[in-house]
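Record type: monomer structure entry
Structure origin: computed from sequence
Chain ID: A
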Amino acid sequence: MNSVQKIVLILLVTFLLFNIVDATARLTLFWIVHLVAISVSITKFAACLSPPHRNDTSLDVRQLTIAPTYTIILALYDEAAMVPSLLDRIAALQYPAERMQIIVALEEDDLATQCACQSALRRGEIEIVTPSPGPPRTKPRALNAALARARGEYVVVYDAEDAPHPAQLTEAAARFAAADRRLAVLQAPLRIATRPGAREIERQFALDYAAQFEVMLPFLLRCGLPIPLGGTSNHFRRSALLAVSGWDAWNVTEDADIGLRLHRAGYRTALLTCPTVEQAPPSIAIWRRQRGRWIKGFIQTLMVHSRSLHPLDIPLLIAMSLTLVAAIGSAFVQAPAMAFTLACLLEWSVLGDHSQINWSGSCLTMLEMSGSLLAMGIGARRAGLTPRWRSLIAAPLYWPLQSAALWRALHQLATSPYQWDKTAHTPPDPDQMERPCALDARAAFGLSRKGENSPSTDCAGRNHAPHPSLGRLRAPG
């Protein structure tokens, strides 16, 4: 922490302590919080009004006469059960097999996952890379070990549960070929698959991703702002990765960090059309561990980039405020704000005392909530889904969970800043999946009461077969 950060921290702590005893400070803090929240909400309203992301439909992937070599890095740890289905999904990619280099990045002591990879390793379909022993035991350190072995002109990272659209690599290669070398990374939209009977935490997670990848990120890029990348399905020019020395091995959200570092090095980011489907955390406990790691990584990223932040880099300042600062600040205030609101409502309903109701604050809170709910609903529809009304109504009860994740993040930041909380995954249930077909995509994402046929995804101006991970689901029961 440099001297400027220490001064800011001291001033912030002093102000918060003063706020406990001084009414003027409390009022000042109240308006600061709401002004920041309103700024984020206005951005969300603007993002909802802006057109959805569309790539240049004149770009034809068939113009690629020679496919460049593509390195696919699969970062796995304790994922033996996921290996067969993951390799099947990678094999389904519509890209010349001889032009793909598949590297599985593993930890040296993860013998079970190594054994699960042995059959593919013997056939020469994959390479296994393990980082040298030593700290930190994080995903970005394993990615850097794999990057050292990469031969491809382009590099993509996938996680154990990922189901990328078959045309994703082809679209990315065509986009890179048509752009100048300042285009360093392409982010595929991430969409969350849930099954019939999914818990509400999974549905809320899916709505979160829809708002982020279908509404906010396209808007930020359209405004010329950098974005913190998602944790997977990032397609890079290998030369750009090497120019910024790869990933930060000590950051537990290396994706958010490298997106900002590439911007500071003069590179730019764009979005793909072909999505990647992922799983949602199946329980609040797993969600809290994952979200706690994200918040801890956001704080790490904010601290690292604020050390050498140029005051004239306005796009970076705005982007970090609307993403990292907004996420951390939201986690700080959600639970206290909900507790205060419920206490006021209880006092009003029991005692009939209206004096404790802050009408201006209530109106501002409703405005701020409306921006988030609108982004969730529009994001879900842009992803081809029909969000359940009850999930949107329940969202304000989901948001305070971020405060629990924040306290976990702060505790780990003080005691184990580089600990990587692993998210457990389970392989797809074959009893719920049948052969790929023109499918009930809405039911597959678990956000509508009943499914309707939906068209296949249009990637890079071409119609492709339906996403193989979204086969027709059998009705529950």
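Annotation 1: Residues 388 and 448 are 6 Å apart (CA to CA).
Annotation 2: The chain is about 50% helix and 10% strand.
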